[in-house]
Design goal:
two-stranded antiparallel ribbon; mainly alpha; 5 helices
């Protein structure tokens, strides 16, 4: 199924479609009965929440929203693809939010698994904000100055030297 589109940004959600999120949850051994009780409208709201969290974390380092690009498969059909692991992280964060809210009263370990999924996704998104982890194809913001283009700034962060008095 084609991706759902965010009304605010006018582009596809980072997580893709509701079927992609359901497929991700099935890979986590969440049975079909539990997933059928979740409405697609709720999944879209979790996708929007996950995208807002990701955008909030990436806003210091990148111009947002991150734009998808066309990738042609072996059959010659173009698909919109988000760079790097962005789609996977958004699906992981959405699945974690889904488990935390929809299945919180059913099993205790389901709540813990949802919390762990969400926290792992947040850690990996935070890694994308560091100077040595970049999203390929995304437009970077300068870390030195708002007026300096990123291609002019130094390639490595400044190293502080600690002087000790003997």
């Amino acid at each position: 199924m084609p991706d759902e589109f965010n009304a605010e940004s006018g582009q596809a959600y980072y997580a893709g479609s509701t079927e992609d999120v359901i497929r991700f949850c099935k890979a986590l051994n969440i049975d079909e009965g539990r997933l059928s009780a979740v409405k697609p409208v709720n999944i879209v709201s979790y996708m929007k929440t996950a995208e807002d969290i990701i955008n909030g974390m990436l806003s210091e380092s990148y111009f947002l929203p991150i734009k998808p690009y066309n990738q042609v498969d072996a059959n010659g059909i173009p698909h919109l693809v988000f760079p790097g692991r962005l789609r996977y992280l958004a699906q992981q964060m959405t699945a974690g939010l889904l488990m935390l809210t929809e299945f919180q009263h059913q099993e205790q370990n389901m709540n813990e698994a949802g919390q762990k999924l969400f926290e792992e996704a947040k850690k990996e998104v935070y890694q994308l904000t560091l100077w040595n982890h970049r999203i390929p194809g995304a437009r970077y913001k300068s870390r030195e100055s708002h007026f300096m283009p990123p291609r002019v700034e130094p390639p490595h962060p400044p190293i502080e030297q600690i002087w000790s008095l003997n």
